[in-house]
Specification:
This protein is α+β, with helices and mostly antiparallel strands and 203 residues long. Helix content is 35%, strand content 18%. The strands form two sheets. Strands 2-3-1-6-7-5 form a six-stranded mixed beta sheet, sandwiched between helices. A two-stranded antiparallel sheet has the order 4-8. The longest helix is centred in the middle third of the chain and has 16 residues. It is globular, with a radius of gyration of 17 Å. The N terminus is likely disordered.
Length: 203
């Protein structure tokens, strides 16, 4: 998870106080990076040509004009999650992020959701990510996000469209979008950006 705080608002009260006691925090070029202590992750084998991020390009790698987000686009603090729909630890984190979102003014804190499907261990994570991105066309990303994590054990190709029905989405539109891999390049961009940031597991 990454927090980004504008360098122009250093004197503002920080909503990061809740991190005390359970997170390690490092400030690099305006990016607040933290790892929850003791939190387990599902890991991805690092690509041999993946280069670690530097303080100069962290903000560029975190930025995504396509990713779904909640909150105001120019919020002072940005929380970016890289997640996998089949990762049990991403599932555990999901309600925590929603709780945090309810605690802070949306004009001050923005939550960004980026995909990190670990296909080595989660064979349906990429397809689930595609379905959720396709759901953006119908303003249904969060509905599908919540359903996928609530019923994570049921994620499988034959059940994807039961999820879309439950989310109140047009099944035909989602099916066509997924079949044509309309947004796969954006999902793979999330994955490559995450690897460049040094991320090798979720969440």
């Amino acid at each position: 998870l990454y927090w980004r705080k504008s360098l122009m608002s250093q004197s503002s009260p920080s909503p990061l106080l809740f991190l005390a006691g359970f997170a390690t925090v490092l400030l690099v070029a305006g990016i607040i990076i933290f790892n929850v202590q003791g939190a387990p992750t599902i890991k991805l084998s690092r690509a041999p040509n993946a280069q670690p991020a530097t303080s100069r390009n962290i903000q560029g790698l975190l930025a995504s004009s396509f990713a779904f987000f909640t909150g105001h686009p120019t919020a002072k603090v940005t929380v970016t999650e890289f997640f996998d729909f089949q990762c049990p630890y991403s599932k555990e984190l999901a309600p925590t992020l929603q709780k945090l979102a309810s605690l802070y003014d949306p004009s001050q804190v923005k939550f960004v959701f980026r995909h990190f499907p670990i296909r080595e261990t989660h064979p349906y994570a990429l397809a689930a990510a595609q379905a959720s991105v396709c759901a953006k066309e119908q303003n249904g990303f969060m509905n599908l996000y919540n359903l996928f994590f609530t019923y994570q054990e049921d994620i499988a190709p034959e059940s994807f469209f039961e999820f879309t029905d439950a989310a109140g989405l047009d099944r035909t539109r989602i099916e066509d979008c997924v079949a044509n891999q309309r947004y796969q390049e954006f999902i793979l961009k999330d994955l490559s950006d995450g690897q460049a940031l040094g991320i090798n597991g979720t969440p």
